[in-house]
Amino acid sequence: MNGKTNHCVYNINYHIVFCSKYRHKVITGRVEDTVKLTIQETCNAYGYTLIQIETMPDHLHIFLSAPPTVAPTGICPETQKHHRQQNILCLSRP
Predict the structure, then answer these.
(1) Which residues, other chains included, contact 4 with Cβ-Cβ below 8 Å and sequence gap of 6+?
(2) What is the pLDDT of residue 86?
(3) Which of 10, 14, 37, 42 makes an SS bond possible with 82, Cβ 3.0 to 4.6 Å?
(4) Which string of DSSP letters, residue by residue, matches 27-42?
(5) pLDDT tens, 10-47?
């Protein structure tokens, strides 16, 4: 899956793993659906291509492609911040 900018063609993929605190099994049901949707929306908003996402009860794997102008250290906080805010809202609803 190649991307293009004005001066280059790139194929930069990142495999990111997020774990819940103390590896508690909380990524199930509504939380799992919310996490997947939120990460997809975040990738679309920042121009990343979400290749695949897999959730386990205690962690999730994200495989995405980002342009070379974005540092890997910038991808993780952006995606983590957005899905954390959405999960707090999801868990607080009855």
Answers:
(1) 10
(2) 60
(3) 42
(4) --HHHHHHHHHHHHHH
(5) 999 999 998 888 888 988 888 889 889 888 988 898 89
DSSP β-bridge partners for residue 53 = 62
State CA 62 to chain mean position distance.
Answer: 6
Residue 49 has pLDDT above 80, yes or no: yes
DSSP string across the chain = --EE-SS-EE--EEEEEEE-GGG-S---HHHHHHHHHHHHHHHHHHT-EEEEEEE-SSEEEEEEE--TTS-HHHHHHHHHHHHHHHHHHHHH--
Place of tokens 């890997």: 72
